[in-house]
Amino acid sequence: MQQFFGLEATGQLDNSTLAIMHIPRCGVPDVQHLRAVPQRSRWMKRYLTYRIYNYTPDMKREDVDYIFQKAF
Fold first, then answer.
1. Of 12, 21, 44, 67, which has the most beta carbons under 10 Å away?
2. Spatial separation of the C-alpha atoms in residues 35 and 46, rounded to whole Å
3. Which helix H or strand E contains 11, and what residues bound it?
4. Cβ proximity of 8 and 2 under 8 Å
5. What's the whole-model pTM score?
6. How far apart are CA 1 and CA 18, in angstroms?
7. Which residues have C-beta within 8 Å of that of residue 58, sequence separation ≥ 6?
8. CA nearest 27: which of 13, 41, 38?
């Protein structure tokens, strides 16, 4: 998340990272407030697309691709 928002990627939860995390990023909140009756909580899209920009050096690319394919 730090790198995505142009911050130094330290992996530490510092004040700059916290400030970025409190800014809404899209129409779907990260955390939903509990309600007695859930309101519309489904995505409007049926098919999702994704792209992996940076693969981890700890795993083979093929393994990562396979895991993501199975997850979706």
1. 21
2. 25
3. none
4. yes
5. 0.38
6. 11
7. none
8. 41
